[in-house]
Amino acid sequence: MIQLMATYSLSNSVTTICCLIFLPFLGTIYLAPQAEAARAFFVFGDSLVDNGNNNYLITSARADSYPYGIDSPTHRPSGRFSNGLNIADIISQKIGSVEPPLPYLSPDLNGRRLLIGANFASAGVGILNDTGIQFLNILRMPIQLAYFQEYQRRVQALIGRDQAKRLIEQSLVLITVGGNDFVNNYYLGPSSARSRQLPLPRYVKYVISEYEKLLMNLYKLGPRRILVTGTGAMGCVPGELATRATNGGCSAEVQRAGALYNPQLDQMLKGLNKKLGKDVFISANNGQMHLDFINNPRAFGFTNSKVACCGQGPYNGVGLCTFLSNLCPNRALYAFWDAFHPSEKANRIIVQKMNSGSIRYMSPMNLSTIMALDSTT
Ligand SMILES: *[C@@H]1O[C@H](CO)[C@@H](O)[C@H](O)[C@H]1NC(C)=O
Ligand SMILES: *[C@@H]1O[C@H](CO)[C@@H](O)[C@H](O)[C@H]1NC(C)=O
User: Fold this and answer.
1) Which ligand sits nearest to residue 279's alpha carbon?
2) Is the CB of 358 under 6 A from ligand 2?
3) Phi then psi for 189, rounded to 5 degrees?
4) Alpha carbon distance 44, 138 (integer Å)
5) Which one from 47, 92, 122, 251 is the annotated catalytic residue?
6) What does the pLDDT look like over 161-195, one tens digit per residue?
């Protein structure tokens, strides 16, 4: 506990340093009216898209110390689980945001900066409430949605009800969650409570049915374009290779989970769009995007798609990435930054496919098509 508190105050001082540096930049946001021109962007989910909420929480799921953020402009950790940017950051660049939406818990998310959007994601969470209980205090999905409602009340106070409603309706949402329901729940340890309770196919159906409720609750809060990512190649991440590799390759069992889950997610999203009579939910096939560079790393400029850049043990896949870990000198050559998270370079490849990939990657359409469609209506 004492150690957690120490980390917590350290992260606060890091935040202070970061914001002093950014003060001049903040000044330009307040002056520039075009700050409102780009559509608002909202982010929900887990560590793949958390950009610092967990810095403000008492949790072991955090990325606020060296060497996280080593390749960011400040070279300082921000709470992102990456050497630099994550996919939410890169999407915000693609859609022309002046800056990535701030973590919702950041004290700097105030005034007109709220109009850029907000990031509610929290490392360690899953679709199910019991996923990630080992990380203590994290923002589970029902809390992320409750904060989104609170955010809307704050924006209404700022620009009025009608304008706030329009801002939400015209926004873009990214939701990335589900991986932890497998790697940090069903497959946590040799025999988890969930795996003793349900065989995999029934567990997958249960997770999908809970996700469907969650997505409908999100839709009811107003957004009309929601990017939903499937799970990555969970059985191929260094953390799983270290503990469950099958004949030196990906864990067949964990890959089986993704092979069941991802197509059912895709079908569920199609079903929701049909019910709503419009293409609200966009299904992103991140599992395939990951497999592309895992199976053929050299085609993407990687020398390594199995060993994490930062970590220790087999595949650098055991334990956390800390200042004591092995650290690769050139992060751009590694598909994985730590045991579970892609490098910034891999994240750029993923967003490239989300933006302009074919129907194999993005269904029913890619982000560039969404942006073109929505700009004319
Ligand atoms: C998860 O928690 C929320 C709020 O605490 C609750 O409304 C919901 O029913 C829970 N879900 C399950 C499956 O228990
Ligand atoms: C995706 O985006 C590209 C443009 O970047 C476009 O040519 C293509 O048709 C789109 N594909 C789909 C399936 O929407």
Assistant:
1) 2
2) yes
3) 75, 175
4) 13
5) 47
6) 999 999 999 999 999 999 999 999 999 988 999 99
